[in-house]
Every structure is written in structure tokens, then in C-alpha cells.
Amino acid sequence: MELLVASAIGLMTACGTYLVLRKRTFPVIVGLAMLTYAVNVFIFASGRLAIGLPAIITDGATYSDPLTQALVLTAIVISFGMTALIVMMALGSFLTTGEDYIGMDDDAKPAAKPAAKQEGDA
Amino acid sequence: MSLALIAALPFLGALLPGLLIRAGRNACATVTGLVTATALLGILLHAPAVMRGEVITTRIEWLPALGLNATFFLDGLGLLFAGLILGIGLLIILYARFYLSAKDPMGQFYAYLLMFQGAMVGIVLSDNILLLLVFWELTSLSSFLLIGYWKHLPEGRQGARMALTVTGAGGLAMIAGMLILGDIVGSYDLTVILQNKDLIQASDWYLPALILILIGAFTKSAQFPFHFWLPHAMAAPTPVSAYLHSATMVKAGLFLMARMWPVLAGTPEWFYIVATTGLVTMVLAAKIALFKDDLKALLAFSTVSHLGLITMLLGFGTKEAAVIAVFHIINHATFKAALFMSAGIVDHETHTRDIKRLGGLRHLMPITFTIVCISALSMAGIPPLNGFLSKELMLDAAVDMPWLGNGWIIPVLATIGAMFSVAYSFRLISHTFLGPVRDDYPAKPHDPGFGLWAAPAFLAALVIAIGIMPMTTVGGLVQVTASAVIGAQAEVYITHWHGFVPALWMSIIAVGAGLVLLGAHGRLDAIWLATPRPDAKRMFDAVMAPLVRVSRSITDRLHDGSFARYAAIAVLAIVTAGYYAYVSGTHTPGTRTMTPIHPVPFIGWVLLMGATASLFTFHRNRLLALVLVGVIGLMVSVGFVYLSAPDLALTQISVEVATVMLLLLALNFLPKDSPVESTIARRGRDGIIAGGAGLAVGALIYALMMRDFAFPSISEFHLANSKPGGGGTNVVNVILVDFRGYDTFGEIVVLGIAGIVIYALVEALLRGGPANDRLLAWLPDQKRAGDRHPLMLVVATRMILPIAIMVGVYIFLRGHNEPGGGFIAGLVVAIATIMQYMASGFGWAAARQRIDYHAMIGWGVVIAGLCGVGSWFAMRPFMTTNFGYFKLPFIEKFELATAVIFDVGVFLTVVGAVMLALASISRIAIRAGETVNVDPFDIQPDEQPNAKEAR
């Protein structure tokens, strides 16, 4: 199971990183969402895996690690707030400039120059 | 009053002027004055004890492991400086109230001033050299703000930057020196260091430490060759010049030399570095001062010269000279602050500080003239004023002080310095105030109101009082201070008449020659102007320009504004660092056995991996990308269920729903596809970076999961205490609302802020401007649905709403013992409400509920906070919860915990933030021409066909 979790985290990280390196706002947002999954599962998994042992106190059983779960729970909710905020910023900059390009001058898209600049200032 | 409190008072007080400026300028100045007066009172209350020779200390342990403690002590030296800083500070606050014009932001000024004051008081009271360094840097930063206060003046900005660069760089050198010193002694406590003279002076590291510390002191006190920043700092408003550049900040360097005198002084190295620097500075700056036409520049160079004089006295390394240095610090503070303020008055009234455009002001400004006369005569060293007393003593100390075996050099140069001092002091009086009244002043001058001249007049009165009765007025203070400097009982005997000693003749020569110089000023000035001089600013700029170019080219290459570039560099750096750590460390194989893989989870894994891999290929189709994200999120949730984390699964799946809805709504206004832009090479490069990151993270977590904890985990504590200490069996929830309630409180505050920022963003977009125009002209790029509010969906969501809310309440209530809690309940209720919006339209749904989401966020945070405060009333620390078991008829025994109140706060904040975010997008849609429906359905089932046509 550890191998499956680790490979999933690895692939989600790779996918998230690749999308974050794109030059349009929307893939970057999706990439950040992917990285969020990867990071949350990473933190969760650092409490080690356990099957069928939820951290609900019963009589004398062993439990999964509650601490990493508590950390990740708030992280999931906060990451929703952050995603919502970034989405609105991306939407705002697209509506303001008519462009969702976020590269710079040397990135071989001459037409997008002014738009990209304004975004950088905003 | 505790010394720590005295040092903290100005910092705390710095919050007040900014607030009280709304109540008017007088209120603002008064409260600033009160803060300073309170701190001064605190110092004065300790004064009797200090005058008896006691040392007051305050010790607060902060980071004992690093030797960094907030320890303060007050001895004679600290008393003198704290008194000067706060006393003159009070006068400056009064003066600034009338000096600043109505256009200047006064609240800002007083806030900066108090910050600076706090930093200065901190320096002179610190007993820990690390703490002292922190305050030292704070004075550089706050003086930067003060010098550049008039942001519209380029000279102000450049002067501020130059001052910060020079004093900041000096501060860095001093940090190194102080650390060496602390290392030699083995303690960072000043009181300990001061008792280890022999240890320090015998160390091989004595000279490096000495030089580094002196660089810090010399830059701060504007000693040659670092003197050039001070005249440029004169672009500051005059109250700042009077405060920072005459009375306090530039004296911080002197303070440090005086403070370190017992352990650093007395060696030939000290003598040749300090005394020589002081001597050169004194003569050079006095000469330049004579040829400056700007009143403040003249005073600036004169300050540099007098600081040189004091440095030289400290450099002599004899006890007598140290006593004179202390006395001159007091005298210089009185007459120089008075002169700066008077120069400010002249500038304020005539609108010029150029001496060549002034003259004859004696009749027009008699009060100012009197103040300047007294102070300038003292500066020139004319009996019986206080400047005379210390200058005579200085000349006396200079006699027979051999320099490289030559007994003439120092006395002669000291006399020449005194001569220039006489010349520029008299020039200040005669060229500004004497002579005929002119008719070409830029403004018609007259004496200002009492408020402006009260402070300098008070100082001028002090000049006379100290001058006439030195032993009565300051004799005791000088004695206590000097004793603190030399670390032994100081002998103080100040008198006007020493007999026909060499110092008297030197003094007479200085005055005579100075007057001759002044008489010949016109011709000398012509020669001065004709000879080329090094321009400090140009040299400084020439040094700075290449540095700026280099740092700019590095910054531009790393941070050119492209997000992709930042991200790539960051990822590469992290992966490389991790790889280095991996290859350079040692590691053993994992000890845990792998958990078995069952078929069903394996299928889930295949789905997850498949969806993720497809994202690489299909991310350009944005809608498909969202669907794939949904699949991945679902699989992650299922994974949480399987891996014993029911709370996480519930949270993840509800957040997933909200996130996908939000992204779908946003996508409505964004392009539906991402074009192919990057070259294949670039995509390959990104792929390699991403692959590296994925491999690294995957390998790391695999290695982590296959090993046991290196240290015992604190999870055991939470598991053991959840039921007995927190009263709940769901440990995750108890951690959230109880053990780590403070963290959760912070997190809901962040969530609430995110919600409100989203609202503000939309508000700003819709207020007008290009975004608003674009929305008004919006044409949908996709086909619209024929029936936007289908009957089936509307009816279904109505049915679901009460059930969903019931589920929310249930999840909320059971959260303490079973999976659930405020976060999840909040998300469930928010989604149920959003369903109504989606089914019947935003307008229709919004008209039927009167919930203000802002208020909801606010109440959530307030309730959670009050729940924490409530534990104070039970005499327990913040956010301590309590619980009990109750029995009501007909139902079994149940538990009530105060944590549930906290959870209500969490619930409200989550609902408010989620709803505010989604409602904000709806507002954009309405602006883009989305019709607001008043009926629940577009097609009314009971509507007759003809009636529809009639509409």
C-alpha cells in the first residue's frame, strides 16, 4: 500500500509542478490544486498508514495518527480559501486585461507583452 | 517603572499618533508628548538611586539557549543618555507640532519619531549586546524613515538611502565585532563583558573586534572618512535634524565608545585609531563648516567636528579626558539642538537657509537672534557659557598628549580646530543676523509664535545655567556618568579659571585667529570655491552604481516577473538541496513491513494515476481538466476513508464539490482552452523538472512511511488525553477544537480574510474600469441552456435543503465523538445552500434569505474568540475548554463541552467564507448580463400557453 500511496503522491506532485510551469492562469490554478492534494496526502502519510483504525477512542485498540489528520483537515479547508482567492485574482486580471497570459517578454509571445506587464503590476 | 517597560513605551506609543491624528494635530502631538513624558518620568524615578551609584537592572529570559535575553540596566551613562533622548525628545515634539505644516502627515511623523526614540532608549539601556544590536539596527531603519519623511523631495530620499547604507553597513560590521567580543568573554551580557578587560585585550581577536566595533561607531557618529552622509541627511525636516543629527543618533556611536571604554580603551591601538580619527574629523569638518552657506549644512559639519572632538577625548584613553568627553556630550546637546531649531525657525520664516541671502535679521527676529547668539557663543567657546568650559578642558587635555612621540601635533591641531569653530560660530551670528536689513528675503520674516521658540529658548537657558554654575547644575550627573564610563570613581572639578595655563593661551589664540579668519572670509571663500574638492555624493553614487547594476542583473535573471521562472528555480533548488542531503548523509533500509495491497484500493489507485497522467495530456481542454481534477479529488477522499481518516474524507469530498463548482463558475468567464505556446524543448525541460520533483517527493514519502518515527510522536499524548482531558472520543476533532484550538482559531481567521478579500476584489472590479466595461459588453461564448432552471432540479433541491441542513446539524453535534465537526458541517450546509442558488438562480435565492455573509464570518470569529476568552473567567488560560455529562429525561446521558461553542464559530466562518466566495462570482455573472429571475422556474407548470405568449 505504501508503494501505491508514494507513487500517487509522486505523480500528483509531478503533474502539479508541470501545470504550475505553464503560462496561462487556469492551468496554474489546476496545478496548485494538484500540488495541494499531493502535499495534503504527504502530510497525512507522514503519520504512517493504517487500515481500519480510525482515531476514535474505543476500548484499548491501536489508532492511526490523529495529529497529521488534524493538520491536514484544516489545510484542506484553508486551501479551498486560497484556491478561491487565486481564481478570483485570475478572473479579475483576465477581465481587466483581456489576457490570461502570465509569462514575460522573453517568452516568445510578443502580442501579450503589455497585458503581461499590467498583470505583474496589479 | 521596569526598564523593559521604559524601553517598550515609545514602541507601544508609536501606535497612538496614527490613530489620534483623526482627533486633530494638537491631540496627536499631546499624546506623543505624554508617551515620552511617561518614559522620562520612569527614568527620573530611578535617577536618585543611580545618582547614589546604584545600578538598576531588569532581566527577562527570552532565548537563554542562544544567550539572547531581554536584560536592561541603568547606570550613570545610561541615565545621561536616556535623559537626553527623552528630554530633548519632548522638546522636539513640541517644536515639531508648530514646525510641520498642515500638509505634512503628522501622525506618521510622530509614529516614526517614537519608534526612533524607543530604539535609542533601547540602545542605552540594553545589558545584552545582541539586544543592543537589534536596537542599533532599528535606529538606522527608523532614521531612514525620518530622513526621507518628505517623500516628494529627491534629496530627502537620496539622503535617507545614503544614511541607511552607511550606518547599516557599519552596523553589520559592528555585529561581527560584538559577536567576536561575546565569543572571547563567553557571555553576551554587557555587565559581564565590562569586567573582563584583561581577557579581551590579551586576546588575538582584540584588534579585529576593536576595528569592527569602531567601524560601527564611526559610521553612526559620522567620523572621517564616513562623515559624508550626515550633511546629506539634512534634507530631513529640521526637528529630525535637531533630534537625530545633533542630540541623539549620531551620539549613539559615542555612547558605544564610552560604554566599551573600560574594556577596549587604554591600548596604543585604541589611542591611534580613535584619537587620530577624532582629531582629523574635528579639524577637517570645522574647516568645511566655515565655507558652507546653507545654515543646516554649516551646523551639520559643525556637529561632525564636535563629535570628532568627543571621539578624540575618548581616544586619549585617560580618565580625565573621559570626564571631559561626558561633559561635552551634555553641552553639545544643549547648544546644538537649540541652534538646529533656530535654523529651522529662520528657514520657516524667511523660506531660505542660504546665509548669503540672509543678514540683518537681528531687528526683525530679536527672540531668535538672542537664542542663536547664546548658543553660537557657547559653540565658539566664549566664557562664561558651557561650551567654553568643556573646550578649555579639552585644550588642557590636548596639551602634552604625544602623538608618535611628538608633543606638538595634537595641541596645535586642536587649537586650529577651535579656531575654525570660533570662525564659523561668529559667521553664523554675523552673516545671518547682523548687518543691514535687506529687502529681498523670499518671505517677510518675523519672530514665530511661542510654541516654536519655546524649546530652543529652554535649551539656551540651560546653556547659560550650566555655563555659570557647572558644578551645581550638572556636576553630579557628570560625576556619575563619568564613573560609569571609566568604571571607577571619577574626579570632577569644573571651573572657569585655571590660571595662566597653556590652555588659556591656546583659547585666546583660537578666538583671535578665528575672528581674523572671519574677517577674511570673503577672500577665503573665493579661493575655496575655486579649488576642486571631492564630492562625497558623486563618489558614493559611483561606488553604488556598479553594485546596484550587479544586484539588478542577478535579480532580473532570477525574478523577471514570470511566475513559471520563479517556480522552476524554486523547485530545482529544493530538489537539488534534497538530493545533496540524500547523497551526503547515511541511511539504513526501512524497518516497517509494507501494508498489504487489496484489489479494490488497487483499482482506486489505477483510477487516480490514470486521471493524473491524463491531465498532462488533456490539460488544455479546461473543462476536461476540471472533470479529471474531480476524479482525482474523489479518489483522494476514498483513499482517506480506506486509510482510517473518516474526518478527512468527509472534509475532502465536500471541499471538492465546492472547489469544482467555483472553478466551473469561473471558467464561464475564462477561455475554455489553453493554446499551445511553449516550444517542445521548453515542455521537455518543464517535464524534467516536474519529473524530478515528483520522483523526489515520492521517494521521500516512501522512505518516511517505511521507517518508524525517529522520536516518540506527541500523538500518543493526544490519544491518551482526548477522552479524559477533552471529553471527546474523536481525537481529530478534539485536537482541532481543544488541544490546538488556538491554531484552528488562526485558521478560521485566515479563511474569513480570504472570503472578505474575494468580496473586496469583486467589489473593486465592478466599481468601473476596464473589467466592468468588458462585463457590460459580455457576449456568452457558449450556447445557453434552453431551460436554465429545470423543474426537476428545483424541486429536488428544495426537498434536499431541510434534509441537508439536518445532516449538517447531525454531523456538527456528533463531531466531538464521531467523525464530523464544525468544518465538515459548515461545508455541508454551504453546499446545500449553493444547490439552491444553482437550481433557482442567484437572484431568486438571494431574495429569499436575509443572511449577511460578512456578518456571518465576523460572528464566527467573534464567537470562537469569546469562547477562548471565556476560560479566563474560570481562571484558566486562554482557550481552555471544560465539559460535563448531563442527563435529561427520555434520552441517554450526553456530554456538553464548551468546545462546542468554539465549533459553532468554526461552522459559521466556514459557511460565511464559502458562500461569500461563490456569491461574489454570481455578482460578476449578473453584471455580465445574466438575467435575474424572479420566478423559481423559467417554465411555469401551471401557466397557460396563451398567457405565456402575452408576456
Can you tell me about this structure?
- The complex is a heterodimer of chains A (122) and B (951).
- Chain A has 122 residues and is mainly α.
- Chain A has a single domain (2-121), classed as Helix Hairpins, CATH 1.10.287.
- Chain A has helices spanning 2-20, 25-45, 66-97, 113-121.
- Chain A is elongated and about 60 Å long.
- The model of chain A is unreliable at 107-122 (pLDDT under 50).
- By secondary structure, chain B is mainly α.
- Among the domains of chain B are: 265-554, no CATH class; 730-951, no CATH class.
- Helix content of chain B is 72%, strand content 2%.
- Chain B contains 40 helices and four strands.
- In chain B, the strands form two sheets. Chain B has a two-stranded antiparallel ribbon with strand order 1-2. A two-stranded antiparallel ribbon of chain B has the order 3-4.
- In chain B, α19 (386-398) crosses α23 (502-519).
- Mean pLDDT of chain B is 88; it is low at 947-951.
- At the A-B interface, α1, α2, α3 and α4 of A face α26, α27, α28, α29 and α30 of B.
Topology (SSEs and partners):
The complex is a heterodimer of chains A (122) and B (951).
Chain A: H1 2-20, H2 25-45, H3 66-97, H4 113-121
Helix pairs in contact in A: 1-2, 2-3
Chain B: H1 3-13, H2 15-20, H3 25-51, E1 56-63, E2 68-74, H4 76-99, H5 106-125, H6 129-147, H7 154-185, H8 190-193, H9 197-202, H10 206-220, H11 229-232, H12 238-247, H13 249-264, H14 268-290, H15 295-316, H16 319-350, H17 361-364, H18 366-380, H19 386-398, H20 409-433, H21 450-468, H22 470-486, H23 502-519, H24 521-530, H25 536-558, H26 563-584, H27 599-618, H28 622-642, H29 646-667, H30 680-705, H31 715-726, H32 731-739, H33 741-766, H34 770-776, H35 791-814, H36 822-840, H37 842-847, H38 853-873, E3 883-886, E4 894-897, H39 899-927, H40 945-950
Antiparallel strand pairs in B: 1-2, 3-4
Membrane topology (chain A): Multi-pass membrane protein
Protein name (chain A): Multisubunit potassium/proton antiporter, PhaC subunit
Pfam families (chain A): Oxidored_q2 (PF00420)
